[in-house]
Specification:
alpha/beta; 31% strand
Length: 413
């Protein structure tokens, strides 16, 4: 059996390890556009802020490919998949496959702004981006971060820790608008401002100018902002440029079934590039988070190696500390104004506590928690299980509630 895996991120390497566990003799070729050993991409922001060194990033040893008898083809991007000939083209060479995994992850969402190619304007998606940023920080004093999502916050925090004055431009009305609701978002904004960030909402950069290196940003409100370094953190899009969309079904990502198989038999997808059912929303979704990439990689590997295993679906969730705020969110956090949903909220402004639970019938489908998140994982488990709750909904908002009872306490009439 000839296996080809495109992508040496966590989804790709998990698939390779799973295949090798169940097929010790099959040939595995792993293709990656980065030449570095597999590393923890979510931790690159820690390198930016100086909390760790780059040597702490790898998640597999230097002999990973050799130990699993994997042919590693690194440093180039795939340019073509020939579905009929069952070949993949990269760097002028072709590799035949019987079963193929596409795990190319996601690319930074580009911006449409004149001057974006100037020096010291960078994305923050991989470790090379971070090294470029660190080099630019040496003579920088004023940083501009575009985007108020997770990447934008981590970039802003990192350069703030390096001693720069930081301005964040957020096109939406509050930070982390894709992860939390407006109430939590405004609490986060206030916390960022309290710690010295200049946070501007409902605004974006439309152009940059400088002599080889960025010096000024032109903003959508007509103002100009001096800056020595710009970090673009406006989200990601699945990396699909090489995928033949007339043969392999795509939407936002590559559409897969419960076996992580695409519309073409023998071709699978996993990780940030794959689109499958979101458990809370009950609709196709791309949940580009590390735990789901691992889960999907293992399911894909099992099925590619001949084991029939079904993936239950993904769940969006995030846990992050923002200065003195602990944030946990998952599922549907900002439901439409629909009779199908009911929302319960608790807030204590003095203690900086906030909880929001979203229900669909007797099922918990979403949650946002600010501080006091210790047992929030059990709420996420309740969302994932789609279990019918056995306690009055209002009691779930109580700060001292033992959430461990929420699934098996007898119903109260």
């Amino acid at each position: 059996m000839r296996y080809v895996i495109i992508g040496n991120g966590v989804a790709g390497i998990t698939t390779a390890e799973t295949i090798r566990q169940y097929d010790p003799k099959g040939g595995i070729t792993l293709i990656g556009d980065e030449s570095a050993a597999p590393y923890c991409r979510p931790m690159i922001s820690l390198v930016l802020e100086g909390a760790i060194t780059p040597e702490k990033l790898p998640i597999r040893g230097s002999r990973f490919y050799d130990d699993l008898n994997i042919q590693a083809v690194l440093g180039n991007r795939v340019t073509d998949i020939d579905v009929e000939k069952r070949t993949v083209t990269v760097g002028g060479s072709s590799y035949g496959f019987d079963r193929l995994l596409i795990a190319t992850g996601a690319d930074p969402r580009p911006i449409k702004a004149e001057g974006a190619a100037l020096g010291n304007v960078s994305y923050m998606r991989n470790q090379d981006h971070v090294q470029t940023m660190l080099a630019g920080l040496r003579d920088a004093r004023r940083a501009l971060v575009l985007g108020g999502g997770l990447v934008g916050f981590k970039a802003a925090y990192g350069v703030l820790r390096r001693g720069l004055a930081v301005t964040m431009l957020i096109r939406s009305g509050y930070p982390l608008s894709m992860q939390v609701d407006e109430e939590a978002g405004m609490m986060i904004r206030d916390e960022l401002v309290r710690h010295g960030l200049d946070v501007r909402v409902d605004i974006e950069a439309i152009a940059f100018e400088g002599n080889g290196r960025v010096r000024t940003a032109h903003l959508s409100d007509g103002s100009r902002l001096p800056c020595d370094i710009v970090v673009i953190g406006k989200g990601v899009l699945p990396a699909l440029a090489f995928v033949p969309r007339d043969r392999i079904r795509t939407d936002l990502g590559i559409v897969v079934d419960g076996r992580m198989e695409t519309s073409v038999a023998g071709i699978f997808a996993a990780g940030d590039v794959a689109e499958y059912v979101d458990i809370a929303r009950n609709t196709p979704w791309v949940n580009a988070i590390w735990p789901e990439a691992v889960n999907q990689g293992r399911i894909a590997g099992l099925n590619m190696a001949g084991r029939r295993v079904t993936y239950p679906g993904s769940l969006s969730r995030n846990v992050i500390r923002i200065f003195d705020l602990d944030i946990m969110a998952g599922g549907v956090v900002d439901p439409p104004q629909d009779a199908l949903y009911r929302t319960l909220v608790f807030k204590n402004a003095n203690k900086k506590l906030y909880r929001k639970l979203v229900f669909q019938g007797d099922h918990l489908v979403g949650m946002v928690m600010v501080n006091g998140i210790e047992q929030g994982g059990l709420l996420l488990a309740a969302i994932q299980s789609r279990a019918q709750l056995k306690v009055p909904r209002e009691t779930l908002l109580e700060p001292g509630l033992n959430y461990g009872r929420l699934l098996w306490r007898p119903a109260i009439a």
